[in-house]
C-alpha cells in the first residue's frame, strides 16, 4: 500500500443535499430528483448549457465532479491529467427504461437518439471530460455494492504507473428518485491518506 497518495477533497450528493469535504453547500427539501438537481445546478453556478440535455445519471455525476474540480481551480484552457474511475450497481437502468418506453410508444422501431446515447453508464465520464479537458484513463465498473477495495487498487495502479497525476473516483448511483453520488479526488498531497479504511469512512459519513 502506497501511503504517498491522499484524498485531497470529496463530494457527496444524497438526501437532497450537496456537501464538499463534509460541509453542506446546498440543500433542498424537494424529493423529486429532477427538480432537486436543477435547483442545485442553479444555486452552485454550474454554468454548462449542455447539462440540461444529459440524462439523470450524467447530471448527478457531472454536478458532483463539477463541485470537486471547481474547488481545484483548474485552468479551463489547458488539458488536465486527471483519470476517472467510477462505479455503481444499476448501470444506466434509469435511462434504459426511458429508452424502452420510447420504443414501445412508437408504431415502428425508431427510438429517441437523445435517450439512446445515454444507455451506457460511462457516458457521464465523457460529459465531465469534455468540460474539464480530461484526456487520461477512464473506466466505469458495475458492482453489487460500493467496492472501496477495487477503487483503491485501480486508483493506486494508475498513479504508481504514472498514467495520471490525479484520479477522480467514486460511486454514482441513480434509479428514479433514488440517487447517491460519492466522488473523491486522489493526489500526492492532502490531509486524508488514501486507504480502504478512509474511503469507507468517508462514504459512510
List descriptors.
8 strands; 205 residues; Peroxisomal Thiolase, Chain A, domain 1; 8-stranded mixed β-sheet; 37% helix; 25% strand
Write the layout of secondary structure elements.
Layout: E1 6-14, E2 17-20, E3 23-27, H1 33-43, H2 56-71, E4 82-88, H3 93-104, H4 113-116, H5 123-132, E5 138-142, H6 148-160, E6 166-175, E7 178-187, E8 192-193, H7 196-204
Parallel strand pairs: 4-5, 4-6
Antiparallel strand pairs: 1-2, 1-7, 1-8, 2-3, 6-7
Helix pairs in contact: 1-2, 2-5
Describe it.
- By secondary structure, the chain is an alpha+beta fold.
- It has a single domain (6-92, 119-204), classed as Peroxisomal Thiolase, Chain A, domain 1, CATH 3.40.47.
- The protein is 37% helix and 25% strand.
- The protein has seven helices and eight strands.
- Strand 1 and strand 2 (17-20) form a beta hairpin.
- The chain is globular, with a radius of gyration of 17 Å.
- The mean pLDDT is 89.
CATH level 1 class label: Alpha Beta
Order of SSEs: EEEHHEHHHEHEEEH
Question: Which class of secondary structure composition applies to the elements?
Answer: alpha+beta
Domain unit count: 1
Organism: Flavivirga eckloniae
Protein name: 3-oxoacyl-ACP synthase
